[in-house]
Design a protein that fits this description.
Layout lengths: L1 H8 L3 H10 L3 H10 L1 H4 L13 H7 L5 H16 L2 H13 L19 H5 L10 H21 L11 H5 L2 H20 L1 E6 L5 E7 L2 H4 L2 E2 L5 E7 L5 E7 L10 E2 L9 H12 L6 H4 L11 H4 L3 H22 L3 H6 L1 H15 L9 H18 L6
Helix pairs in contact: 3-9, 3-11, 6-7, 6-11, 9-11, 16-18, 16-19, 18-19
The structure holds zinc ion.
Length: about 375
Amino acid sequence: MFAQVKLMMAGKYEEFHKKLGAQQDLESRVMAALKALEYILPLDVHCDRKDSQISSYCLSLAMNDHTPFSLKLTIMAIREAGGFDKLREQLGEFKKNKDCLEKGFSEDGTYKSNTYKPLYYLEAHEDKRWLPEFITMTLNMSVILYFVFVETSFFGKSSDKSLKALLNNKNAIFTANLIAFHYMIIQTNDHEMSEVTHYGQHMGLGAVIHPFCSLFNHSCYPNVSRVPILGSDNVMYQMMMVQHAIKKGSQIFDDYGFDFTLENAARRKDLCQKYYFECRCKACRNNWPMFEKLPSVIMTCTSQTKKNDIVTAMSRVAKVESVILEGDIATLDAEHETVFKILIDAVNFLSNYGTSPPTKEYLRTVTLLKTAYLVIYGNRINL
Ligand SMILES: [Zn+2]
């Protein structure tokens, strides 16, 4: 990354590495990274200054997407509160709340995902992070903060744009800490927003933070799936769709991009690296095989009558599958109620032969149901 290279060129990278490693709290690390700007400046950024867009600036510095996103969340939080001081006051109040069942909720008891409070309480895993992550995060933060300080009047209209002035600006330091904090929130909680093609393929549009969706725990065998939709108000939402019958009182599980059809050891390692937990869902605990090695209910069912019923249900599913995979949107739109009825009836019927791990037929139908949700309800690319 650009800032790291500049530190290396100045012979200061090792010193910075040690300094950050010696600090235990985010605030001290943020301050160390801001002071390191002394060796990173000037930035020599080759972007069009007339069009001082943060995005082109970040691109020219080969910065990851989390950094401008963190800045955006910070600006939104400051605006929502009504200024730096009001946000400081609010955060002081937030920190007093220790009750995990109340945290994030408004005083009227609602959980408003489109406001800052629930976002502030999302998991950041600050205590579990490795030093290299703090290095990347704080250096990116310091470079983007410097840009805002020099190129805008966000921190006041003073013409003194020196590094010393930045380090003495309490609102800039406050903002720096929030950017770093939001960076961690984003890494742990962001969800991809995408458009789907008629073949059920995704095309990523970007990432969003949706505090309500972040409340769901992970399972490699989830019982709901997220479907990005475009609301009639032209705002994008995440809809949570049920993919298995959920017994009253049982937990709702989402999957964080890793389901049990991915190889077990690699999946658990990736989950641990990205989300800092060892997955103990039933698929992981019991080392469920990948799709090819799942049992087949048609092959194992001993009753010919039941076998005939299963074959009939699966032949209906196969017809729906071909309509979805062929991308026949007109038919899907016109017959979506029938499509869902066939799939949901088949899921419920096959669940009578519930096995652990699930049968091939069951998983195939559930996967198809998920694709149908995406294609029929999801945010669609121009078809
Ligand atoms: Zn798992």
